[in-house]
Design goal:
The complex is a heterotrimer of chains A (about 250), B (about 650) and C (about 220). Helices cover about 35% and strands about 10% of the residues of chain A. Chain A is an alpha+beta fold and about 250 residues long. Chain A has a 5-stranded mixed β-sheet with strand order 2-1-5-3-4. In chain A, strands 6-7 form a two-stranded antiparallel ribbon. In chain A, β1 and β2 form a beta hairpin. Chain A is elongated. In chain B, β19 and β20 form a beta hairpin. Chain B has about 650 residues and is of the alpha+beta class. Chain B is globular. Chain B has 17 helices and 20 strands. In chain B, strands 6-2-1-10-18 form a 5-stranded parallel β-sheet, with helices on both faces. Chain C has a single domain, classed as 3 helical TM bundles of succinate and fumarate reductases. Classes of the chains: A alpha+beta (about 250), B alpha+beta (about 650), C mainly alpha (about 220). At the A-B interface, α1, α2 and α3 of A face α3, α5, α6, α11 and α12 of B.
């Protein structure tokens, strides 16, 4: 099938970017979306042009590398699907596909469709862990955790850190990502000792990095490739109360 | 032959590790802060090591080619992680786990290493649970276990079909905690191109910044490689497309021997190749074989829809050939059996290169709900990728390149033949012998990262606490940087007509056909000459567009494929030299009358460690003999 | 404390709490309005009580402060949210699942405020500071009923009023569940229920308010015809 691609091209972070149109005449419906882009790149290289830079790695929807804002949606059409799992069967002959990098102040473009998502790591560094030194752990079965609780923690823990929540959010908020980690750890007994400071520290970091504020539109949930529920954001909010909002951000200051 | 000293501690098997820990050198906490450790690769093994070394007070500089450690391919491990907790009271023990791994590896692994891996496995589970990994639990609130590939006890801890992701994120959370504390410095988006050896010891690395193209120098008191496996040499594999051998190969060029390179596990249950565009063969967890039954039609070329082929016209060939283990035979056995059926013309699908994995019986017996609870996410993934609903129709699967048992040769302290250069996780030649059992990889990676590396590093550095930090302007750094730049310049300069991927696909095809599931002398000779030709063609006709000082994914790939071309030759040479069959290495010339792998212990009970002899030179083989004092060597039988 | 107010989650909490306060106010306001259906005397009596009861009078500045805080803080958030995406998308498809209202709270709020200006100038301000005609049967009570019904006879006023109530309804529909979520009183199960509560509440408020101008406008048309 014939596909017209309108792709954001930008040589470096400091270069000015813009849309470039590429046409592919013989796209197979059997291709995955990324295989279609591989194919585009092959034709570009063979024509002596530079290939489109995009991120991908595992190609099975678990590493969180692939991104792409396809026809106005992060990870393109389809529910609970990463871009690498997206098939060309979702498109028809003659379609125009607009591909943009994820847009957020906190995700600057590196090149073409590749953005810098280290902000997500920085948020986790602020508190997205349990301080359990190697060697100090008690026998694993000494901490029974009800199956329901453990399962719910798992539902949050499936986050792949792709950043589609921020990409989808009209406010550029990263709250679902933060909530996934805070909620997972808040549900587990192991996460309790540090629970009071965790949520506040992570949200303060998110502000500092330039993410927007959540206004509960649930756009993130609709586009999350792992189907993470915004109920976890409510739990994050409860965790903020529990920590007294950083004890009202350390009262005096 | 004298260069291989495995440094296995004396004493009875069960006491070796404890004795070793009691006698190794230690570095006092005040001195640790003066010592820098370079760590390349931040998957499960690397992240676990980085966090632990940081906690101990060393300065860790951690490198990875991804944008963040959380994306390392450990993330894709599905089925589980083994430990000898014996929570199921089914007779498991450290010794049993050890025994299963040795047997599963077809008696080509080192006893002491494997025993230690089994020993630390229990602590690994404790550590991961403490880090917040939500392993599956029973209604009692206690941890659940399942039985997994090729063993008769339930010792596998799992987190739905995403155990690797959860374990990696657990280790990664420890890593970022040390980043926040300033004990670990992360250098993401870096490719390691060279190891810098000064006065015979590894003291630094040369990296390429994948964003700016800058060539950077980094020094430290020791270098750890945790760079994973090289299964992507087949082009199509279950691995992430970015997985590569470049760091390991750079170490190899600097004197680290490469052990058992041809030992590659072909995973029996992956998606089949459907077309030429395909970039990846997604793994479908081995756990599926717990309830799924594998079959092909009894009649060759039977094109009927699988659901309309009656029961008595189906050949459940694994159950037929291996009545004791049935569908749960180890991976190498299952893979070869599938290939055998397809080669004989019984394969299904358009290409005839796949077999059915059928859940209809299990769904009938246990109900759709029970099956969904166990495999829901896998079924969903399969459905997404193929548009086939496995609740209705059987899955179609075929073997694919998966895990490399081979890797850098290391001694008991996980140190390569270059002093100060360590290799952990899948990047070393590991504990899995000639075949890895399911759920063994996460166990090895986490155990080595959390518990073994810190001991080994402490021992090595205890003799170097007075060694000052090394400036990066010495002649060895100059030379290493020059080598790295030369190679990049040469790749850019070829300016030929074919894409890097075109070469990779052709190399993959050669490796798959001649150095894959089944090997023979003629094929391997053929592979050697084909790769030599392909390598020449690569260096005269490859096209790397763009510039070096930009993000240049083609250049990244070109560096990797150039190394794969050399590694492919070594794999073929290794497979050629080992004229026996063992584990995943199946030489047609060496099989039992029933067509099973035939080991030749009298001649090949050794680790083959290859020494690099310069570009174009012929590798030299060193042998580390394997001694088995605690297990009885048997013919591996799953009948 | 400054750090709390500086943080987005602190501001969100303030917007949420002030929003809930305003939502509660709406139902009081509506209850008063609906007494119009009981006739001129009742309504005038209620209006008089509202205008003279010290407790109610004391609440006025609180209400005004709540409203001002709600407007200022949410406007600041909207502005900083806008800045969090300096380069906009060329194409946005909200097919996902967020509601139109949730994505346009700032616009809806702005429209409601514009109407509020008109509303205050035509009713609350004259009632409080002006000297409208007194009710027939009282020396002190102002004839609120007359003031309102006069306005409700104007087609453009009734149209604006009704449109504003639609905006208000949409704003409240998302606002209620959003505020509940922000104060942490939601979860996977309850969010659907809260969403329903929010929608029902918003519908009651919007229909309740709009019923009066529509009713009296029709009355006036029928009466004059």
């Amino acid at each position: 099938m014939r596909i017209q691609l309108k792709i954001w091209r930008q040589e470096t972070a400091t270069h000015k970017g813009g849309f470039v149109t590429h046409v592919l005449d013989d796209v197979s419906r059997e291709m995955s979306f990324l295989e279609m882009l591989d194919y585009l790149n092959t034709t570009l290289i063979e024509r002596g042009e530079e290939p489109v830079v995009f991120e991908h790695d595992c190609r099975e929807g678990i590493c969180g590398c692939c991104s792409l804002y396809i026809n106005g949606r992060p990870h393109g059409p389809g529910k609970e699907t990463t871009t690498c799992e997206l098939r060309m069967t979702k498109f028809a002959d003659g379609d125009t596909i607009v591909i943009e990098p994820w847009r957020s102040k906190a995700f600057p473009v590196i090149r073409d469709l590749m953005v810098d998502r280290t902000a997500l790591d920085q948020i986790l560094q602020a508190g997205g862990f349990i301080s359990a030194n190697t060697g100090a752990a008690p026998e694993a079965n000494s901490i029974p955790i009800s199956k329901e609780r453990s399962d719910e923690a798992f539902d949050a823990a499936v986050c792949i850190g792709c950043g589609s929540c921020t990409a989808a959010c009209p406010n550029g908020s990263v709250m679902l990502f933060v909530a996934a980690k805070v909620s997972q750890l808040a549900l587990l007994p192991q996460g309790q000792p540090e629970a009071k400071r965790r949520a506040w520290a992570m949200m303060a970091k998110a502000d500092e990095l330039g993410f927007g504020a959540c206004s509960n539109t649930a756009a993130c949930e609709a586009e999350c490739p792992k189907g993470i529920d915004i109920g976890h954001i409510a739990r994050l909010n409860r965790e903020l109360f529990r920590g007294g909002f950083g004890s009202l951000a350390t009262a005096a200051s | 032959m004298t260069i291989l000293d495995s440094k296995i501690p004396a004493g009875p098997l069960a006491d070796k590790w404890a004795n070793h820990k009691n006698t190794v050198g230690l570095v006092n906490p005040a001195n640790r802060a003066k010592l820098d450790i370079i760590l390349v690769g931040t998957g499960l093994a690397g992240a676990a090591a980085a966090s632990t070394l940081g906690e101990l007070g060393y300065n860790v500089k951690a490198f990875c080619f991804q944008d963040t450690p959380r994306r390392a391919h450990s993330v894709a491990a599905q089925g589980g992680i083994n430990a000898a907790k014996n929570y199921k009271n089914d007779g498991d023990s450290i010794y049993r786990l050890f025994h299963d791994v040795i047997k599963g590896g077809d008696y080509r692994a080192r006893e002491a290493n494997v025993y230690r891996a089994a020993e630390v496995s229990n602590h690994t589970i404790d550590q991961l649970v403490a880090a917040g990994v939500p392993f599956a639990r029973e209604y009692s609130g206690y941890l659940d276990n399942r039985s997994f590939g090729g063993v008769q006890v339930s010792r596998t801890f799992y987190a739905r079909g995403q155990t690797g992701q959860q374990c990696l994120l657990g280790a990664y959370s420890g890593l970022i905690r040390q980043v926040a504390k300033g004990k670990v410095t992360m250098y993401p988006r870096r490719d390691m191109l060279e190891v810098v050896v000064v006065d015979g010891e590894a003291r630094g690395i040369i990296t390429r910044n994948l964003v700016t193209g800058e060539i950077e120098r980094h020094s430290g008191h020791a270098v750890i490689l945790a760079t994973g496996g090289y299964g992507t040499i087949y082009y199509l594999s279950t691995l992430a497309v970015g997985s590569n051998a470049t760091a390991a190969w750079a170490a190899h060029r600097k004197g680290a021997l490469f052990a058992n390179p041809s030992f590659v596990q072909i995973h029996p249950t992956s998606l089949p190749q459907l077309n030429d565009y395909q970039a990846k063969l997604t793994l479908m967890s081995e756990s599926l074989r717990n309830d799924g039954r594998i079959w092909v039609p009894k009649e060759a070329g039977d094109k009927r829809h699988p659901n309309s082929i009656p029961e008595d016209e189906r050949d459940y060939y694994l159950e037929r050939r291996y009545p004791a283990f049935g569908n749960l035979v180890p991976r190498d056995v299952a893979s070869r059996a599938a290939k055998e059926r397809c080669d004989a013309g019984y394969g299904v699908g358009d290409t005839g290169l796949s077999v059915y994995l059928d859940f209809s019986g299990a769904i009938e017996k246990q109900g759709k709900k029970a099956i969904e609870a166990k495999y829901g996410n896998l079924f969903e993934m399969y459905n997404k990728l193929t548009d086939i609903d496995p609740y209705e129709d059987p899955m179609r699967i075929y073997p694919a390149g998966h895990y490399t048992m081979g890797g850098l040769w290391v001694d008991y302290n996980l140190m390569t033949t270059v002093p100060g250069l360590f290799s952990i996780g899948e990047s070393n030649f590991s504990d899995h012998g000639a075949n890895r059992l399911g759920a063994g990889s996460l166990m090895q990676c986490a155990g080595e990262g959390y518990f073994i590396t810190p001991v080994a590093i402490g021992d090595y550095l205890s003799e170097r606490i007075k060694t000052p930090r090394m400036p990066v302007d010495g002649p060895e750094f100059d030379a290493a940087e020059r080598d790295a730049r030369d190679r990049l310049d040469r790749l850019m300069a070829v300016n030929g007509k074919q894409t890097v991927t075109a070469f990779h696909k052709r190399l993959g095809r050669i490796m798959w056909d001649d150095c894959g599931m089944v090997r023979n002398e003629a094929g391997l000779e053929q592979a050697l000459s084909s790769i030599t030709e392909l390598k020449e063609e690569f260096w005269s006709d490859v096209k790397v567009p763009g510039r070096q000082d930009r993000v240049n994914q083609e250049l990244e790939k070109a560096v990797r494929v150039a190394d794969f071309l050399e590694l492919g030759q070594l794999m073929s040479r290794d497979a050629l030299a080992r004229k026996e069959s063992c584990g995943a290495h199946f030489r047609e010339e060496s099989q039992t009358p029933e067509g099973e792998a035939q080991r030749i212990d009298s001649e090949y009970s050794y680790v083959a460690a290859w020494e690099y002899q310069g570009e174009g030179g012929e590798h030299v083989l060193h042998k580390e003999p394997l001694k088995f004092e605690n297990v009885e060597i048997k013919e591996r039988s799953y009948k | 404390m400054r750090a709390f107010l500086g943080a987005s989650v602190g501001k969100k909490l303030i917007v949420g709490l002030s929003g809930l306060f305003l939502i509660l106010f709406l139902v009081v306001h509506l209850a008063v309005n609906l007494t119009m259906f009981a006739g001129r005397d009742t309504y005038n009596a209620v209006a008089h009580w509202m205008g003279t009861n010290p407790a109610i009078l004391a609440m006025r500045p609180v209400l005004a402060a709540g409203l001002v805080v709600h407007i200022l803080v949410s406007s600041y958030l909207a502005w900083s949210n806008w800045r969090s995406r300096p380069e906009r998308y060329a194409m946005v498809d909200a097919a996902g699942g967020s509601t139109w209202a949730s994505r346009h709270m700032f616009v809806l709020g702005g429209l409601v405020i514009l109407f509020l200006g008109l509303h205050l100038s035509s009713f609350a301000i004259p009632m409080t500071f002006g000297s409208p005609p007194l009710a027939e049967n009282s020396p002190v009570m102002k004839d609120a009923y007359a003031l309102v019904t006069a306005r409700f006879g104007l087609w453009w006023y009734v149209s604006l009023y009704t449109a504003a109530m639609v905006f208000l309804g949409l704003h409240v529909a998302h606002g209620l569940q959003s505020a509940i979520q922000t104060v942490g009183l939601s979860n996977r199960r309850w969010r659907r229920r809260w969403a329903r509560v929010g929608n029902v509440y918003a519908a009651v408020v919007a229909v309740g308010f709009a019923s009066l101008p529509l009713y009296f406008f029709i009355q006036s048309q029928v009466g004059s015809a």
